[in-house]
Amino acid sequence: QTDPTVSLEIKKAIAQSGNIPATGNKERLAAAATVRAAYQACILIANQRPQQSINALSKEILTFKCDVEAGLSVQSVSSFPSSYHVILDKGRYPVYLLVQNVIEKTKARELVPVLVKIVETMLFCIDVEQFKTRTLGELIPSLTKNPLIDYCPTTQQVAVGSVEGLVHVFDIRNGKCTPLHCHSAPTSAVTFSANGRALVTFSDSEGKVSIWQSSAGLLSLMSLGPLKLSRTVEALPPLKNGSRNAIFKWEAPKLVSLYTVDGTKKSFGL
Q: How far, in Å, are 66, 205, 207, 237 from residue 240 at the CA level?
């Protein structure tokens, strides 16, 4: 749930950081102090209420995207201060740093309910061109060891598991997100094959592995069709409480193994 108070405070703080005068040394010094104060206010709010803050940022970014798709200019938007709209449009790096700070200061399990929104916000802040020369691990290092997130550099797609059992697949090239109904319980781990033509997911609560595959497009291997459910496999006994800390590892191009913290290994062929 988005807390209206948190949303308003973050909005005001970031919007205030956009009020930088074009000229005047004294004005610039004062503006710099305002920016620092506004940013520190955002950090304090986000660290105290991380989930609500992520929800608030995600909501405002969604509003921004809708306004852009509707052809509204920054000046014509009246749903929130235009200076805040400018920050989302031109100054995304401070938002990136804010979310990065939340990730580093908050326990990983507390962020699981908003993990999809975290990734969505970070991808909004990062220039798509950077993915041509840098990996997701270099751009968002704090998320790379999370078994609920995987990135395929071949197709430039990011998969993010959720507590609802959905796996959201973000296509960095076109900005679209496709939710896949992988499980009826929280997702525990996800992995792409090296060529991006397969996505494998696991749910501890179900004990099942879900295998999704895509056929190559007509023009090239880089043009893939949509991922479709190939099969669901009973992998391990359903776990009602706790976590096996399961991770996937590709043993071969068409062979993936699921490893758990107790040493169990289950392998699945495509």
A: 40, 6, 10, 9
Query: Is residue 75 a contact partner of residue 37, using CB atoms and an 8 Å limit?
Result: no
What is the number of residues in the chain?
Answer: 270
Asked if residue 147 lies in contact with residue 189, where contact means CB atoms within 8 angstroms, the answer is yes
* Cα 175 off chain centre by: 12
Q: What's this model's pTM, rounded to 2 decimal places?
A: 0.81
Closest CA to 128 of 97, 171, 65, 88: 171
Task: Pick the closest to residue 96 from 45, 61, 66 (CA basis).
Answer: 61
199 in Cβ contact with 191 (< 8 Å): yes
pLDDT of residue 93: 77
Per-residue DSSP letters for 213-230? E--B-SS-TTSB---EEE
Identify residue 177 by its one-letter amino acid code.
C
